[in-house]
Write a structure and sequence with these properties.
This protein is mostly helical. The protein has helices at 2-9, 12-21, 24-47, 51-71, 75-88, 93-120, 128-168, 175-205, 207-212, 220-243.
């Protein structure tokens, strides 16, 4: 029995999971997936008239939202640094500008989100109309950041597709040159896969701030599912990033 318990506890998958959960991003994505599942399940219960059972899921959703805001308090500076680094790099101008705009968008979103959190926990006191305005501005920045991310993905996909097509058209005469070409193709393929992965996340996430701003009318069930899916996709990215370092 002890051997079975040891095999389960010390299983490589369990160790890899702990490695991911030891990162702030990893914990945030797990909290986010749970938060949006709670949003979906609350909608599901209410739609079937089970309002009393839905209360606990609403409470879970609310507490996780507050906890995630706390985890993100230092993120605005991180995105500001990313914007500055992007401005100092060389490369495709369109991709560079889209990246800078995306990072500045997230900087604005998370800055106003932190103010909203401070008001929620009553560290500061805002008038109701001011609180609503802060949340609205935060969602505008969030929406802009995602739209610029989608724009960046479109530019990058076009460039990578062109480079891949040109590379496949080359006629390498030596084995060394052919191996180098194959290596470059594998790199481009990996980059295209990563870009598609992020695009899938963005194309679903964009409906969240759009709904908050009243630009679209989607129910909490659909938004909850979107949030769960994108959280799992982002967690997958973090899993590969963390465990690949071993």
């Amino acid at each position: 029995m002890s051997n079975v318990a040891s095999q389960v506890i010390l299983h490589p998958t369990a160790s890899a999971t702990l490695t991911v959960l030891n990162t702030t991003v990893g914990r945030d994505k797990v909290y986010r997936a749970t938060q949006y599942f709670a949003r979906f399940f609350e909608w599901y219960l209410i739609s079937r008239g089970k309002k009393l059972e839905a209360i606990r899921w609403n409470a879970l959703k609310g507490h996780l939202a507050i906890a995630r805001k706390l985890l993100r308090l230092g993120k605005p500076l991180e995105h500001l640094q990313a914007a500055l680094r992007a401005a100092q790099t060389t490369g495709d101008v369109k991709e560079q500008l889209a990246t800078i705009a995306r990072q500045l968008g997230y900087f604005g979103y998370l800055t106003y989100d932190a103010v909203s959190w401070a008001n929620t926990v009553r560290f500061i006191t805002l008038k109701p109309e001011t609180s609503q305005k802060v949340q609205k501005i935060a969602n505008r920045f969030w929406l802009a950041a995602i739209l610029f991310s989608i724009t960046h993905a479109a530019f990058k996909t076009g460039r990578l597709t062109k480079e891949t097509r040109e590379l496949k058209g080359l006629d390498e005469k030596t084995v060394g040159e052919d191996n180098a070409r194959k290596s470059q193709l594998r790199t481009l393929c990996t980059m295209r896969a990563a870009t598609r992965h992020q695009f899938m996340i963005d194309i679903l996430d964009v409906w969240l701030p759009a709904s908050n701003l009243g630009l679209v009318n989607l129910n909490d069930g659909i938004l909850g599912i979107f949030g769960v899916v994108t959280s799992v996709l982002a967690l997958q990215t973090q899993w590969l990033a963390v465990n690949a370092k071993k």
